[in-house]
Amino acid sequence: AALKRRVRFQVSAALKEGHVTPTELCQRCLSLIKSTKFLNAYITVAEETALKQAEESEKRYRKGQPLGVLDGIPIAVKDNFNTAGIETTCASNMLKGYISPYNATVVQKLLDQGAVLLGKTNLDEFAMGSGSTDGVFGPVRNPWSYSRQYKEKSVPKSHSEDEESNWVITGGSSGGSAAAVSSFTCFAALGSDTGGSTRNPAAHCGVVGLKPTYGLISRHGLIPLVNSMDVPGILTRCVDDAAVVLGSLAGHDPKDSTTIQDNFTPFELPNLTDVSKLSIGIPKEYHAPGLSSEILALWSKAAELFKNAGAKVIEVSLPHTCYSIVCYHVLCTAEVASNMARFDGLEYGHRSDMNKSTESMYAATRREGFNDVVRGRILSGNYFLLKQNYENYFIKAQKVRRLIANDFVKVFRSGVDILLTPTTLCDAVPYMEFIKEDNRTRSTQDDILTQAANMAGLPAINVPTALSERGLPIGLQFIGRSFQEKQLLTVAKWFEKQVKFPMIQLEEVKRHDHNAFQHQKSASFS
Amino acid sequence: MRALRLGRWLRAGGLPVPVPPARAVLTAPGASPAPVPPRPTWQRGEPRPPPQQKVTVEVLDHLEHLALVDFRDAEGVERLQKAIQFADQLRDVNTDGVEPMDSVLEDRCLYLRDDDVTEGNCTNELLKNAREKVEEYFVAPPGNIPLPKLEERETFLQSS
Lengths: 526, 160
Fold this sequence. Notes:
A: alpha/beta; eleven-stranded mixed β-sheet; 19 helices; B: mainly alpha; two-stranded antiparallel sheet; 2% strand
């Protein structure tokens, strides 16, 4: 079996035993990135620095002194995290050419563990969107569009039309990161999650997407969208890997005052065998209008699975779920209006040639730098923040936010441990169909099942569950109590083991592995 | 295959409406019903009628000044109208006696560092990303000149 398909734990063992070297691993990933360039998952590939990091890692392994489990492991980072010396664009003209002078805390932590940073992944501009289609570098293509599983199920209109017009979206906004992990070009990737931006593409690309509790992982260096809801997200191919990455990232950061000061101890996930003490809640409002019958059936099957294994599975109610999107719409645009104000061209980023006055320079810079989606949200946000509207929109939304958060508190207080819900309303949509509706409409539709967890700051995880009739991944979501990631991930791991989600069969990866095999000296990868 | 086409709009004044409880779907005779509701438990509200007054040109102009971002075209203005219409659904929620929530961490005392200078001296590093600079200064065009009035500005709003 190919090395890349292995999850990180197995690769770590391989690195330790010398079956493969960090440099070889890095080179193979870089080569695979090149051969999957059509996915458009990466904006910047940091080839030179990645190889250097791999070399350093190799020296440590030779001495028998790896920094930890992540030493030498290739990772990718969403392009809205600052990375020193590497361009950080947020997929926007506003930051094209911007070279960060510092590393985001999460990036620094990964590098300190010896991880190899392969590059920056594509996203919707400034993380605004649910398709990864609205960035200036173009849309990201879902690797599953090119899988045998999808091709077998799709009916091509004509052979030549087939691949070009039929490809499906990754979901968003961390689509590049999800595609990178899904296509084996890296072992883990960082995304961000404000309304579902890590879990949504994770579901569509068939990978694990973890949204940690707000306040657990530092946001220092993550270019902010909504300060009160943003969190760094973790994308991996299995739940164990997500736990390991979480372990290296979580904890108080003095540079981010919104990280809690409680001590955090990294944990290993137990192999749960007895779920009889678990209470799983099924929030009935998550059967939202538009949920596909396929996903509904899968959700039911999952509930049955837990029930048959002895867990208590009960219906619960989160009555304000239907308002979470409206509430998010107001709070998000309001915070965006404030956060985007920093982009004026003076200190960094794009600057217009207009020189008549400061204000006209700012206006021209922002007109040239931002796309329609960003500008639309800034204007809406400013509208809701006007004196005459502040009380009726912004404050009102903040009150509704409390109601939404309280819904969860009540349910968890009643004895429920974990909530089980679908992640998306349907499987990945073809790009040509997705772009027929505008970004805001799409976001309101696609974020409905993921957004409330951000409102309440709760941890949530997407676990790939099964393939749809079209051969595309469907994931289910678990939502846990605040700061109870260990319990959440333990249950997710148990579920992952039960469903045995199939591996993607990608022609490119197969071809690539064959070539790699021929150059391998020692070929035992057991 | 957009699943959303399957939803039915209930004409009930725009409120998300609970669907009457459906009978449980039995998978096999004698099998107990799964707790997953077989039908959507609410409907999306019917799009509200546009507000009595459309947003005035004065307000649009004011927004362009505040945001320093322009509407560019009719679509931009329409987008704002739709956003307001969408946000109006908040009116349906009863929030009497509810306090606004700023942050989910409101019950905690967050870390505040001492007001001591611990880092800095990175002028060159920071200046690298600026386009216009002179010695250690960022260079800005003259300030205190207000944005031209609506009539004199190059904005789409002029024609509206």
